[in-house]
Amino acid sequence: MGFLLQICKMLQNRVTQLFDIEVPIVQGGMVWASGWRLASAVSNAGGLGIIGAGSMYPEVLKTHILKCKAATTRPFAVNLPLLYPNAAEHIASIIEHGVPIVFTSAGNPAVWTQKLRDAGITVVHVVSSSKFAAKAQLAGCHAVVAEGFEAGGHNGREETTTLVLVPSVVSAVDIPVIAAGGIATGAQMASMLCLGAEGVQVGSRFVATPEASSHMAFKEAVLASKEGDTKLVLKALTPVRLLKNPFFEAVVASETKGVSTDELAALLGKGRAKKGMLEGDLTNGELEIGQASALISALKPAAEVVYELATDCLSTLNRLNEKYLGQK
Questions:
Q1: Is the whole model's pTM more than 0.85, yes or no?
Q2: Does residue 51 contact residue 29 with C-beta atoms inside 8 Å?
Q3: Does residue 254 fall inside a structural domain?
Q4: How sure is the predictor about 156, in pLDDT bands with cuts at 50, 70 and 90?
Q5: pLDDT band for position 121 (50/70/90)?
Q6: 79 with 166, same domain?
Q7: How many CA atoms lie within 13 A of 160 on its CB side?
Q8: DSSP string covering 165-215, please?
């Protein structure tokens, strides 16, 4: 317990203060994985848990918010893709039920940020470029997530890596920057802090937890994945990184042929991600996951993931301090 308290004290910064959390670790709001169980587990462990609203109907989101509030007394957030058809209803539910923090993505933050701020809600926007980070700051966002090309789910078309994106965004804004994309270890977290980020958002690592709502078959596929087993596709629609499977091969074949966006949309259809990640259809489903899946080899509870990230981050920083500065 003493070491844990030391970690919490040493990793305090603007991100921990903004969210009122113990360590600057944010769980990604992933579709079909980030329900109330995962969000509450991460928040209870000292990080910031997020409910991923992108795969939820309004009534479903309400249920998850209420269950999360019952499962934790700590702050938690909702991730909301702004292009989602039910975004307005989700915003109403978020305000009605007193969600303290909202992460917005996939849209213009200027549309809803002021309304959320007026309700006393902390707003963070996910960006894939320094240009969009500056716009998010101008719109009134309290912080931004700089999400690099390595990330799973929706991604930037520019394919800027996290290693390049994070320092670019840090230089472009004054608000806190949270690094995302390809982060699954404490050493990677330490490297992001060295680049100027004040926290990390981790998605794929939390998929491989018992609390994630995704299907066990999908979790096992993530654990079995290696380098090169994911690729960014569907850039003509909405860029997404997929684990390679027969559906992925069909997408690549269609893109190689140069089919129209309408044909790609027809191939994608509806419910493809649900089929793969929630129902466990590894043949016909869409399997969204980041490159960090290659670094994940064991299913661990969310609280253990938070603890390992924080302790390994601090150990890495201490080791570098001793090695290069000769200080203990």
A1: yes
A2: yes
A3: yes
A4: confident
A5: very high
A6: yes
A7: 18
A8: HHHHHHHH-SS-EEEESS--SHHHHHHHHHTT-SEEEE-HHHHTSTTS-S-
